[in-house]
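Hello,

Following up on my earlier ticket. Below are the two sequence lines again, exactly as submitted.
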Amino acid sequence: KQEVTQIPAALSVPEGENLVLNCSFTDSAIYNLQWFRQDPGKGLTSLLLIQSSQREQTSGRLNASLDKSSGRSTLYIAASQPGDSATYLCAVDYGGSQGNLIFGKGTKLSVKP
Amino acid sequence: DAMVIQNPRYQVTQFGKPVTLSCSQTLNHNVMYWYQQKSSQAPKLLFHYYDKDFNNEADTPDNFQSRRPNTSFCFLDIRSPGLGDAAMYLCATSRPRQGVETQYFGPGTRLLVL
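Thanks for your patience. The regenerated structure is below:
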């Protein structure tokens, strides 16, 4: 069964810290892996997409890495800010023509001023 | 701005009373997805439309139906809502394998069943 797991479920850090969110997937034959952000009571916003042939992607203070062989991805957030407080979800696309995603439950991040 | 719109944002219904949630998009994406998300849970795919073709997930209850009258609109119908159907319902769109690999989400509809 294809599953996506995110640890920890929740994380609280002081402002300015660098932090890492973890995502693991059971089947390494992925097409791409995506990171989303979800604010309370809102929809999801795409942050980064890593193709299976890539090792990492960067956008501003965010860096996502992918290690297919170990079934892991990390989302690195540099110099965290209170505005980064949200739930971060990892999702895996296994390459079907329909683009279906398998989501993790997310990590709820709180950045304290 | 091109976007995915969901209406209403909040819906209160009574146990057993049919309800319809709406999603529209201006992105011209050919695939539209409906997800159910409960508190602290991963979004659960209910079904999706690939163009006009309906694709139901195996574990989606028969109580949930969908319609896509045209490219821009998609509806989620819950025929007889139960208390367990209270959740956030998310609509998303994409054009997978045709240049848009990520999914664009609407703001969601929060459903409350009394």
